[in-house]
Amino acid sequence: MKDVAQHAGVSTATVSRVLNGHAAPTPETRERVLAAIEELGYRPNALARSLRTTSTQTLGLVISDLLNPFFAEIARAVEDEARSHGYCVVIGNADESAEQEATYVRTLLDRRVDGLLLCPATDDPSLVREVSAGGVPLVLLDRTVRGATCPVVRADGSEALTALARRLVGAGHTRIGVIAGPPNTSTGRERTDVLTGSLGGLAQVVHGDFRQESGSQAAARLVDDGATALVAMDNLMGLGALGEIRARGLQIPHDIAFAVFDDQPWFPLLDPPITVIAQPTVEMGQAAALSLLALIDGRQPDDVRLTAKLVLRGSLGEAEL
Amino acid sequence: MKDVAQHAGVSTATVSRVLNGHAAPTPETRERVLAAIEELGYRPNALARSLRTTSTQTLGLVISDLLNPFFAEIARAVEDEARSHGYCVVIGNADESAEQEATYVRTLLDRRVDGLLLCPATDDPSLVREVSAGGVPLVLLDRTVRGATCPVVRADGSEALTALARRLVGAGHTRIGVIAGPPNTSTGRERTDVLTGSLGGLAQVVHGDFRQESGSQAAARLVDDGATALVAMDNLMGLGALGEIRARGLQIPHDIAFAVFDDQPWFPLLDPPITVIAQPTVEMGQAAALSLLALIDGRQPDDVRLTAKLVLRGSLGEAEL
DNA sequence: GAGCAGTAGTTAATCGATTACACATGTATC
DNA sequence: GATACATGTGTAATCGATTAACTACTGCTC
Asked: From the CA of B174, how many Å to the C1' of C22?
């Protein structure tokens, strides 16, 4: 910057004003400065700028697993929305581990992100408190924590789950296997509670960890126990369950009815196509980014609840008639 | 930091020394400083530190599309490897657009990443030159550019493609549809060249853009033209092609043989499971991260070529006998 | 022509760390 | 007891920007 100033025969203050579009400099000076910038190929140092202004134009996003297409889609949406507002997004992968999540959150805070989007790995509010205590704008995404005091953006699957339960019961299933998420996550618990609630005693629950492997294991146990219908509570566990079903040579829906919470582009390609509860991922990402930007802006956004929808495709068999 | 120093009754220099594990401070002073840090909940400002040290402990990763599981997996691997070396990764989404790619690269440079991993959207070397001119360590990943002068990490699918071609020809296919990537990407061109080369005149090529929609369209055209076998050059176009095949009610492999470049966890779940050329994505990500770290370290890593493997699963029909 | 306002630009403090250099103290050596 | 050397700590410059406060100049009014 000093070089540019010298080159243009002005002070660094003037260069800075040109850079930041301040009113002061004469069109003529402005020209000279811009020419010097061009000539020297100067690019401002964002670190120095941020240090001075205490704004990094950066949002932090900590998610559980980038390999989970659900989160990838959310990340993508957040990123798009943020960019269109002039913000960058730094993504952190917590790998469903509370410890790694905490590490990442702290790293992001150390780098002075302007705000943080968090998909909490567990119910535990301590990390959220820590962030709030630091005064950093925070929005929770997809999941919440006990006694959360910050805006939350999530999908509401109750209606869809109730509808799904009604169909399963209506079709005469009496042993319905639920491959649930971890009970210490809000999504894991709530979805399962709603579904088992509506199934009134017909449900058998096995908890997984939102990963493929746990899906296969849960499916194996539930099928062994005589389940005639299986509902997986996220797409990765669904993938695992489908693998197990296939490995056992079971036919959907003839031998077993099947549904997944979370849609994926390849579900319609299976035979039969898989019935799902589709979450509005893109909207969730957008809404979360917007809430966070509002918070950064000093406004107080409301919580957002978007509805997930039941999409019938055939894998429930007669339950879809 | 000043507060901590005051609290511990020392100067900021000493605090800094404790923080950075310098030899100097007395165990006793160290204790006092650490106590003060603890008490005040002090966390060092990474911006200020980076400004002073000119090192951000951050790598930039610019990929074409986070929604493409291939890149998501790579991103994940890069991130893991980087973290284990004490580095953070900032991911940028170029969305297969050269322009957005350039924007992102510049943003990352402005933030003074210590090194950059780039999956170039096109063959054009100008962006790469710009980065190199800036003296920032750079490694290309998955794709290369014309006359690249920096380390490149990629998968070599020649052998697998040749093997695939041999099988298709051997099984008597005479109109083989190739859903190719964009000709202005190295992967798009090279894969297609190798395959069509080994198919010796039996290939019909339609270029897509590595996205689902273009896959369906290409598949539609090729099937209309009488193709009895289809090869998609990446998983998203493969997804699109499968959709089209299904929409037309064609049976794999009876009506049409099918294979995809890129494996995905759900390919084995289809009926029949899809034959693929699997790329070692995790290894690619790791290798790229390691190469970049080496470069940052002042060493000169070699190019890395990992081999992609043909995985036969049944979707080629008699070609797999 | 003195007084005032307005404009364009400069000087220097500042953000929060790191670190070369200076300084004070204690120990070993002759 | 003077000299040298090691050791622990403090002082202040520095990284590259932003910006409040100030200066210099022009032009206008009375």
From this structure: 85
Residue B319: band (very low, low, confident or very high) from pLDDT cuts 50, 70, 90: confident
- Nearest by CB to residue B270, choosing from A91, A111, A270, is A270
The structural domain count of chain A equals 3
b/e B250-263 (16+ beta carbons within 10 angstroms → b)? bebbeebbbbbbbb
Q: Please tell me which residue lies nearest to nucleotide C16, judged from CA to C1'.
A: B48
Chain A: residue whose CA lies nearest to B55: A47
Q: Are residues A144 and A245 in the same domain?
A: no
- 96-155 on A, CB < 7 Å from strand D: none
Which chain B residue is nearest to residue A212, measuring alpha carbons?
B265
Whether residue B120 is found in the same domain as residue B263: no
Nearest-nucleotide field for A11 (CA, C1'): C10
Residue B284 C-alpha, separation from nearest chain A C-alpha, in angstroms: 16
Q: Taking a contact as any Cβ pair under 8 Å apart, which residues of chain A between 85 and 114 contact chain B?
A: 88, 90-93, 106-107, 109-112
Smallest Cα distance from B13 to chain A, Å: 19
Domain for residue A51, yes or no? no
Residue B299 sits in the same domain as residue B178: no
Tens-place pLDDT, residues A134-191: 999 999 999 999 999 999 999 999 999 999 999 999 999 999 999 999 999 999 999 9
Residue B26 has pLDDT above 90, yes or no: no
- Looking at the fold, whether A297 and A272 belong to one and the same domain comes out as no
Please judge whether B75 and A69 are an interchain contact, meaning their C-beta atoms are less than 8 angstroms apart: no
Q: Which domain holds residue A36?
A: 2-44
* Claim to verify: residue B169 and residue B243 sit in the same structural domain: yes
In this structure, is the CB of residue B110 within 7 Å of any atom belonging to strand D? no
CA A228, distance to chain mean position in Å, is: 32
Model confidence band, residue A24 (pLDDT cutoffs 50, 70, 90): low
For chain B, say whether A247 makes contact (Cβ under 8 Å).
Answer: no
Q: Do B128 and B254 fall within a single domain?
A: no
Residue B24 clears pLDDT 80, i.e. is over it: no
- CA B246, C1' C6: Å apart? 74
Taking the C-alpha atoms of residue A215 and residue A264, their distance in angstroms, rounded to an integer, is 16
**pLDDT tops 80 at residue A316:** yes
Do B40 and B139 fall within a single domain? Answer: no
Task: Give chain A's mean pLDDT.
Answer: 95
- Mean pLDDT confidence for B173-199: 96
A69 within some domain: yes
- B110·A44 Cβ contact <8 A: yes
Please write the tens of the pLDDT for every residue from B263-277: 999 999 999 999 999
Inter-chain residue contact B47 with A51, CB threshold 8 Å: yes
Indicate which of B266, B271, B276 best probes the interface with A, i.e. most A CBs within 10 Å of its own CB. B266
Q: Is residue B108 part of a domain?
A: yes
- Give the largest Cα separation in chain B, rounded: 85
pLDDT (0 to 100) of residue B27: 87
CATH of residue A26's domain is 1.10.260.40
Residues B147 and B182 in one domain: no
Evaluate whether residue B51 is within a structural domain: no
Read off the CATH number of the domain in which B201 is found.
Answer: 3.40.50.2300
